[in-house]
Amino acid sequence: VANWGIQSLGLSLYADRLVGTYSGGNKRKLSTAIALIGCPPLLLLDEPTTGMDPQARRMLWNTIVGIIREGRAVVLTSHRQEIPREGEGECEALCTRLAIMVKGTFQCLGTIQHLKYKFGDGYIVTMKIKSPKDDLLPDLNPVEQFFQGNFPGSVQRERHHSMLQFQVASSSLARIFQLLISHKDSLLIEEYSVTQTTLDQASPPRVLSARRLCLLHDST
């Protein structure tokens, strides 16, 4: 059991070292490994990925997912809200149900999809604009005017070089695709993607960036 915990959480290189010499991330791994001893039906983890690098964090995520597949329940808390390159944050990667707490008070409880639907604000449209000439930067103004005219209330989230990103509210997904496809050539859109708002963007208005995220992950 001990060897399984060491290998599952990437502690093989540190197994013969004193715990006092461990980094903060490795101490978190060790605490999680100890909690797994005895195969408890309910596992409680308080911010288990704090201090971990992305690779170690993903390893722990995989371990937690494996526990769930065995039919056991996991309740964990997290402050993590950033979205890594893989395209999902800790909450979206792990939880089946999520409770958001502020100053010890529950603000909402539900599945990720339910919270996105209830508090989300449309879709994120990301585009790469091509230039008519190789030695010139693309003109982004026509695309910006297009979004202002066709999607009132849309918010420009990013603008740099050839990339534009808008958050589009109060519009159907079908209409977004229809307009993008019909104007792709005239606006010189080289490629685009449309995604649903992330969990962080779908937060209740009263929840600030310092919120505490409580993830509930169970087998039911």
UniProtKB/TrEMBL annotation:
* Entry-linked PANTHER family: ATP-BINDING CASSETTE TRANSPORTER SUBFAMILY A ABCA, RETINAL-SPECIFIC PHOSPHOLIPID-TRANSPORTING ATPASE ABCA4
Note the superkingdom of the native organism: Eukaryota
Q: Which Pfam families match?
A: AAA_21 (PF13304), R1_ABCA1 (PF23321)
Named from the GO MF annotations, one term is: ATP hydrolysis activity
Please state every residue range assigned to the domain named ABCA1-4-like C-terminal R2 regulatory. 120-196
Ranges for domain ATPase AAA-type core = 23-79
Gene Ontology CC: one annotated term: membrane
* InterPro entries named in the record: ABCA, ATPase_AAA_core, P-loop_NTPase, R2_ABCA1-4-like
Entry-linked Gene3D superfamilies: P-loop containing nucleotide triphosphate hydrolases (3.40.50.300)
Q: What is this protein called?
A: Uncharacterized protein
Q: What is the lineage of its organism?
A: Eukaryota, Metazoa, Chordata, Craniata, Vertebrata
